Amino acid sequence: MSLLVRMIHLNDPNMRLYSSRQITPAIGFLYAGMHRRKAALTMIFQSLFCACACGIQFWVYGYSLYQSHTTGPFIGDLSLAGLHNVLASPSLANPDIPDILYAAFGFTFVTATAMILAGAMLERGRLFPSMLFLLCWTTFVYYVLAYFEWNPNGWLYKLGVYDFAGSGPVHIASGFSALAWALMLGRRKDPHGESIHPKVPHFKPHNPFLVGLGTILIWFGWFAFNGASTANLSLRSIYVVVNTNLAACGGGITWVLLEYLFHRKFSIIGFCSGIISGLVGITPAAGFVPVYVSALVGALTSTSSFFTVRYKHLLGVDEGLDIFAIHGVGGFVGDILTGFFAARFVPALDGRTNTYTGGWWDREWKQMGYQLAAATTCAAWSFVVSIVLLFVIDKIPGLHIRASEEDEIKGLDFKYLMDVEGDTMVLYGGGSVTPGFTAGSSERAGSSEGVVVPVGVEKRD
Fold this sequence. Notes:
Largest sheet: 3 strands, antiparallel
CATH architecture of the largest domain: Orthogonal Bundle
CATH class of the largest domain: Mainly Alpha
Oligomer: single chain
Number of strands: 3
Number of domains: 2
Low-confidence stretches: 1-15, 423-460
Structural class: mainly alpha
């Protein structure tokens, strides 16, 4: 017990770093399971890229752009570039938290956000242009919106917007940018008529187990994301964790009940989508709303995301991982619900914050206007800037954003990864590199040597 107390002590960085770091690869697992198996490994690769490349970018200039102490009216300067002099100086989040600790925590936010967005390339986006786009996107979308909301000089911060753990820069931005990316890429090819939806391409996920595993890791990591966003150890940080958990529960139960109502069956994919919808909805609200409405916040967010998914064909856009529905719409609804349910006593639980006046719950009617302004700003900025960035990148010779029809049909794993060589899978021991591929019955199980197994075209979908 003493070890647990020490780990979550205010001055111990383990509270911030242990759990939140896993979310980026966990999103990779989630997305890999939702892909067809011919492109699943590409998502794992992309999650590792986001963790590494966006982390280097964060060190070089990203942290300075949104957390520099001397700033301009629109974005921060480069005074903290390379984490120069980022040591024990008081952070902007809390004078008791050193800059270097808050920087380590912020590192996990940007990598996870980039990975949420990365799923929009879904089986037909070229890998190198997607990497360039993600680095440009974090620069011109994420860091700009993070500055607006999290830097004391940001205009949304000054306006008085309630966004506890990043609904705007993280979820709304990635969700609406995913919609823009899917729109620019166009629909996936379906030469064999395998889509299970008559109006938009939609294919059965190849591995619900990976989806479930990714969701479990994301759920656990979200406790650190939200709980540590109080920037101190207090009753409020524990309250935030309880709110987070109840919202996930409310979101998951609501989604599966709605699914059963329409289909008379449950699904692992649906349950996981509901849980994540609840987590998205509570992200802006966790440190502001009473605990007895958090499950309702999760349920309402899940409901809005469910019906967005159900009727997404009306948009005519092939956004098959539902990033827009769950993160974009869910984040927007979460912002609105925060303005509705925010109560002034919840922020005061940290022992430091006494300036919040609450939302409609406390008859503070103008707060809803602030929430709508923030959500609309994040949605519009991210969508428009993403369209511009993708258009420009696509016009650069050699950087067209969509894979060739041959590569798309064959599978991105076969195009980019040496783990999958041409028309063969390399097997080691008794398991295949990609889930779902197995050696023929004639091969001896448990062999310690590499075995090359032919893979027919019909096995790639």
